[in-house]
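We emphasize that the prediction below concerns an isolated chain of 607 residues; any contacts that depend on oligomerization or on bound cofactors are therefore not represented. The input was used exactly as deposited, without trimming of termini.
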Amino acid sequence: MVDVDLSQPPFTFLDDEGRARVRSGIDLAYFDRDEIILEAGQPGEFVFIIHKGEVAELDTTLPGARERIGHYTHGDLFGAISILNGKSRYRFRAEQESLCYLLPKALFLQLCDDYPAFAEFFRQTLAHKARLLTEQRAEGGVTMAGFMLARVSECMRQPLCVGPASTIAEAVATLHDSHADSLLVNGEQGAGMVTKTDLLNALVLEGREQDSPVQAVAHFELVTVTPDQYLFEVLVVMTRHKVERVVVMEQGAPCGVVELTDVLSYFSSRSYVVSLQVAQADSLEALAAASRRTPELVRALMAQGVKLRFAMGLLAALNGRIMNKAWGFLIDERYHGDSCLMVMGSEGRGEQILKTDQDNGLILADDLDWPDCAEQMQRLTDTLIELGYPPCPGNIMVSNPEWVGSVTQWRGRIARWAAGRDGDSLMKLAILLDSHAVAGNPTLLEQVREELFERCSRDEILLSYFARPALRFSTPLTLFGSLKKPQHGIDIKKGGIFPIVHGVRAMALERGIRVTSTLERLDALAEDGRLEARFAEDLGEALSLFTQLRLEQQLARLDGDGSKGGKPDRVVVQELSSLERDLLREALHIVKDFKQRLSHRFHLEYS
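Result of the prediction step, given as a token string:
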């Protein structure tokens, strides 16, 4: 029996008996340098598992300089698709003296028949393989199985209710005293929901009086669940209806409320819901204590295999709540309706998992008189630093007057930046395009962003300049399509994350897509027909993979693990598993394809 390492997929889909069949059925073969192991068009007779050496995958239909499309090394396998398809589409050539384990065709097909998950592995997309990697990393805590069995009743909050005769003023006071974001109104047609934003819009935009009945602004078409439903069903409902809270109904009456942050926090810890600590903080000291728990929450989410998209949603919501609470503690309420605190960059896109540099700005109503605004914004910046948000090296903060202004002033800035088209102006447009309101009156930001879209989305020359930075950094693949392997690691942010984020941002600007999350922009671009759904999904999975690898480096630095390298954006290929290398290589090829599409669409090949 051959002693071969079968601890990586797809062999993890076999049981002990299946792996024993592999070990007793394989042989070992030697291939000289430049020897053809499997020729294009040749029927597949073996699955090859590389024990030592390197093998190139060649597309013989392409010109010589471009024919090399893949690279395989220790632990990688090839030849399975050739067996399943009847013949090999590509040529496989030994790059150096190589030793390969040979799994015979008959045994491979028997394993595929006996273990459907093993067979399915070879037909999976990048999205499926990425999910496999996430599941493989999950360890301890509330496992996926435990989460799937958790019920709504274990996670819901008690409902905050007011009567049908309650006024808007009474509703605002109730929310303020309870540190809640929403409440239920018992109206004639049943229960309705009112959020802080609903109340703010009613007072500021609709001009309603404070003594107006609150049920007039309530939403009575509720998204509901029952106490005995599973939490995973609630996630599906929230995703389908694009809501962040649902009402729990029992015997026709509301008995609780479940918010997205509650569900995801439950996933990370049964004993403590971090979002509740943030929501219930009644001082800056309590808020700081809650804010310090976010790295702990991130580690728990990653260890338990939470899909990165959900983890980013949770952390974005928590960061937004922390900043909103800080704003509430520091800023006089009389200014709340005439000002808007916005976050930008990765925070604005909801893609900042660990706290990084502040990127924020302030929009003021044109007629607002706020004499000590500058002093208040400096205090807010200092407070956010205390809460764990470092100052921005580029000084993109509310303490900088350049990032504070009235709606009219912001519109003027957008006009200047759009006309300038220089690197600094384009960067500021990109930052503002990702802006998201976290406190104050969000309609002020909507007015500013509307100006940005009106001025920029139909300007072909500006869009070309705007998209160009997506091609600025080279993709860390060799000329022959394999991963570069510098000892100091490859820069995953420049080579993978930035091209996707900025390229998708440019396409979203062109199409007038208002959402700020890169993943939501990809969904919108696919729905718009601008990208094929399959390619949009692959881009999203590639971005999630890059973000996951980068996050691991960041967490290692927080833990003081020097073995993971000194720079959080660099990934050392040699330290990755076979599956991680395979995924990274495939993801970078997707980035390369995307950059070619951007170049063609925005005519960047001529710039």
